[in-house]
Glutathione-dependent peroxiredoxin (Pseudohalioglobus sediminis), 159 residues
Amino acid sequence: MTIAVGDSIPAATLKTMGPEGPTDISTSDIFSGKKVLLFAVPGAFTPGCSITHMPGYVVNADKIKAAGVDTIACMAVNDAFVMDAWGKAQNAEEILMLADGMAEFTAALGLELDGSAFGLGTRSQRFALLAEDGVVTHLNVESGPGVDVSSAETMMQLL
């Protein structure tokens, strides 16, 4: 079942790149007591994600935070090394890059995407959500290819 507005973010452990290498970070650490804008992409370095989705968040990060968001996070079913390299390549210093390498958190959200036809395996659907203190207040899932309802510009209208 897909997570919905009013639901709590499920408990899970993701990875992020720390000074010593990949580091565990819990959803509790990310979401508890904070307003978080999480957006997810099917894959780091893929064209739509790199050319269209991520840049809007990079360019608007200061405006998003000024509107009351404590953390902007980007998640993909990739490893922490890939997410770190992609964040650096995208100049995403203000964005918490999260790796869901085994798609466990993605599955807990009910937002998996079968990318087998493209040689990608299980990935995340393209989506964005707002959560306050671990409770989803808005959820926008793309219904097809492209970036529309999960874009930074669309999500900023909800702040």
